[in-house]
Structures are given as C-alpha cells and as structure tokens.
Amino acid sequence: MRTIAVIGAGAAGCFCAALLSRLHPDWKVCVLEAAAHPMQKLAVTGGGRCNITNSFEFVDSLSDVYPRGANLMKRLLHSFGPEDCLHWFGERGVRFVTQGDGCVFPQSQDAMQIVRTLVRAMEEGGVQVLCNHKVTAIERDLSVHFQEASGKLGGTLRPDAVVLTTGGATARLLSGTGIELVGDVPSLFTLKIEDEGLRSLMGTVVDNVTLGLTGTRFRSHGTLLLTDWGVSGPATLRLSSYAARWLSESQYRGTLLVNWMDCSEPELRDRLPEMAGSGRTVANSHPAELSDRLWKMLVGRAGIRPDARWAELGSKGLARLVNTLISDTYEITGRARFKEEFVTCGGVALHEIRPDTLESRRVPGLYFAGEVMDIDAVTGGFNLQAAWSTAWTVAHSIR
Ligand SMILES: Cc1cc2nc3c(=O)[nH]c(=O)nc-3n(C[C@H](O)[C@H](O)[C@H](O)COP(=O)(O)OP(=O)(O)OC[C@H]3O[C@@H](n4cnc5c(N)ncnc54)[C@H](O)[C@@H]3O)c2cc1C
User: Alpha-carbon distance 234 to 357, whole Å?
Assistant: First the structure.
C-alpha cells in the first residue's frame, strides 16, 4: 500500500487529499495540519462567503489576474478550470451564484458549506487528518519531521510521496532540500496617503481610474475607493499585487499616479469644450464620472480659483487642469492590510517544478499545490481557483 503525506489542511491540501482518496482507494492518504482544525482560512474567505472561483469572462489576459504564475495557470486551467470546480462541488450539492463582475460564491453565501463538503469528501475516502501536527522539515529522501502541538511529542514519517500545501510564507520547510525559493512579500493591500484633500473625501468611489507608480510600468484599472487612510478598492489592490515586490523593496514609499478620467490627454481635451460650453464656472461643471466634491478638490489642486470661468483659464490653466485630471500624483507613505485579506507572493520557484505534474525537479516524489508555490492572483476568486487547479493536477499525477 502506498502512503501519501499531504502537508497542510488548507484549500489545496484538503482538495488534493479528497481526490487522491477517491482515485486510489487502496492508498493511505494522511494530512498533517499545524492548526487545531482544517481549513481555518478557507472558512473566512470572501468575508465568510467564499469567493470560490471566477467565471474569467472579464479576463483579457491571465497575466492581468495572475501577476506570478500566469503561464503555468494557463496550462492548469485547461485541465481543471472554473467550470470543473463548480461541477465537482455541484455534484456534492453546492449551488453557486455568479456576480456581475464574474466572482462566484456558493448560493448559501457560506464558506463553511465548502469546508464541510471537503471534510465529507475526505471522510468518505478514509483520509486521515492529523491536526495539531506541525511539520518542521522535509528532507530530500521525503522524510517528514513533525511536532505535536504540545511540543513534547514529535516524529518522522517516510511516505512514498509528499504533497506540500502549507500556503504562503511556508516554503522554508524545504531549506534542507536545495530547492530554490523566491522570497515572500505580501500582496493585496491598500496604500496610505497623507493628503488632507484626499482623506476629506473618505467614502468616495470612482468607477474607472487608472493607477500607476511613477518611474515604473505598473498600471492598474478599475474602481478606486478613497478612505480615511488613503486609497483602497479593486484598482489599488490590483496595483499592490502587480507591484508587490517593487513596493516591498521601496519600503512602501513611492508616488501614486492617478488618471481620474481613465483616458488619454487628446481624449480629455476633446471632451473639455462640451464641459466648458455650459457657461458655468469650472468648479460647477464636473464630468459625470467624478462627484461634485472630488471635482472641486481637483480643480483646487490644479490651482484654479473656485469662481474662475472656463473662458478665464487660458492655455496654462487648461494645461494644469488636464495634467491634474490625467496625471495627478500623491506620495505613498506605507501600506495597510485589506480587511485582513492578503496573499503572499513568493514561494517555491516555478522553474523548480515540473509544469505537467507539479513534482519537484530536484526531489522526486515531492509535489506542490496552492500558495506555497510562487503563484498568486488579484482578488476575485483567482487564488482559490489556483488552489483547486494545482491540487487537481497533483492528485492526477502521483502514480
Ligand atoms: C481573510 C482571507 C480571505 C480570502 N478570501 C479569498 C477569496 O474569497 N477568494 C480567493 O480566491 N482567495 C481568497 N483568499 C486567498 C486564499 O484563501 C488563499 O490563496 C488560499 O487559501 C491558499 O490555499 P492553500 O491551501 O495554498 O493555503 P492555506 O489555505 O493557507 O492552507 C495552508 C494550511 O497549511 C497549514 N500549515 C502551514 N504550515 C504548516 C506546517 N509547518 N505544518 C503543517 N501545516 C501547516 C496551515 O495551518 C493551513 O491550514 C483569502 C485570504 C485571506 C487571508
């Protein structure tokens, strides 16, 4: 009988264990989990609702949603994509709703339904889940050293194959194997900006902006939310994901570039006569996409008097206004977490992993799934889809 040790009872580990037990009923599949219960993180995903996957219908390019690991994900999604995920859970009684933005949630709006489904699938397959078992090291000969929560008892397993699914910032368990690791840094966070004008607009939502970091090519599009500490919302989270490593190296300092109108200078200049034609003051003729208060703040930032009329602006005043609308800048003074929700970028370097099986090139019999690999995504269900796709590939690769 073959023995498979899955390390980490998170989304990827539990899904992989459930699949393995079904594919190979005669194998012994055991999961070692450091925490007292399996899938504690999965239980709180999506604010407790679990954004389990995404329809991908609004994804132009996979690198837009997987800043790290897009090429590998392209391959894996062919084998096990969002439809397959919904089918697997659907066969076990879970119903889903897809939001207008492509995010998919269980109809119950309850992440615990997904947790319970996986627990049941593992139980049916006879998977042994050992909680309070923290793995301390994995060696090249696949020895797995663990310690029980008390710290007093420990031991070593020697399975036929090991699946490492310990999530973000845990790849150091492999330090004795020679496997190359990419340093971990946080991704998906909001940005602190000490600008009184911006902060006074707390709660303002602007639907289509382009954000960037000056001196870099990082750009993101989407909805911006102004908060009492700076900026948040999907556009900010995407930018933090794209530039996660750059921002970490810059100690979360830099200049945020905001194109409030999400258009080019010529496009904006084409629209100005329509706004100016109203005969009102500049401050009183805001474009539909910007709120009255935000527009007034931006007009002030362009150095234009609140009572100035369009005709008084002159070419210099107009240039300042255009510049503020499409190339506004704010100093970033730090990062903040997004509702406790962040993922780690970094982990096992992808060139160490065979793309077709997700087995280590260096340590045969050692497989990887989930966030422990150097794959991470923007928000929207893409991170969990990576967990499902990688786990599925591993389960179908171990022979
Ligand atoms: C609050 C929050 C909300 C999120 N919401 C969403 C969402 O709605 N949709 C989405 O797509 N993504 C979401 N994410 C991201 C998503 O949860 C992760 O990408 C996903 O859980 C990764 O799965 P994983 O199995 O690789 O790792 P995890 O789910 O992190 O599981 C790893 C497991 O390994 C265990 N472990 C770690 N070290 C050891 C060790 N040494 N020995 C034994 N066990 C160990 C951990 O205790 C854990 O149980 C969210 C993340 C957070 C933090």
Answer: 33
Cβ contact 9:29 at 8 Å? no
4: tokens are 């498979």
Q: Is 216 exposed, middle or buried (0-12, 13-18, 19+ CB in 10 A)?
A: middle
* Residue of minimum CA distance from atom 1 in ligand 1: 341
> Ligand 1 pocket, 370 CB below 6 A?
yes
Counting ligand 1 atoms within 8 A of each CB, the residue from 41, 52, 115, 379 with the most, and so the one to mutate, is 41
Question: Would the CB of 9 count as within 6 Å of ligand 1?
Answer: yes
What is the token pair recorded at 201? Answer: 């607009």
Task: Kindly state the tokens that stand for 240.
Answer: 């933090």
Contact (CB, 8 A) for 230 and 336: yes
Ligand 1 centre to CA of 88 (Å) is: 20
CA of 37 to the centre of ligand 1 (A): 13
- What is d(CA 92, CA 171) in angstroms, rounded to the nearest whole number? 32
Distance 274 CA to ligand 1 centre (A): 51
Q: What's this model's pTM, rounded to 2 decimal places? A: 0.94
Per-residue pLDDT reduced to its tens digit, 204-236: 999 999 999 999 999 999 999 999 999 999 999
Q: Would you place residue 341 in the very low, low, confident or very high pLDDT band (cuts 50, 70, 90)?
A: low
Burial letters 150-183, b for 16+ CB under 10 A, else e: eeeeeeebebebbbbbbbbbbbebbeebebebbe
Sign of the dihedral through C-alpha 150, 171, 369, 81? positive
374, 61 Cβ separation under 8 angstroms: no
Q: Which domains are present in the chain?
A: 3-185+344-397 (3.50.50.60), 189-340 (no CATH)
Q: How many CB atoms lie within 10 A of CB 200?
A: 12
As a whole number of angstroms, the distance between CA 24 and CA 157 comes to 20
Ligand 1 closest atom vs CA 10:
31
Helix 382-397 to helix 82-91 angle, to the nearest 10 degrees? 80
CA–CA dist 282, 22 (Å, integer): 68
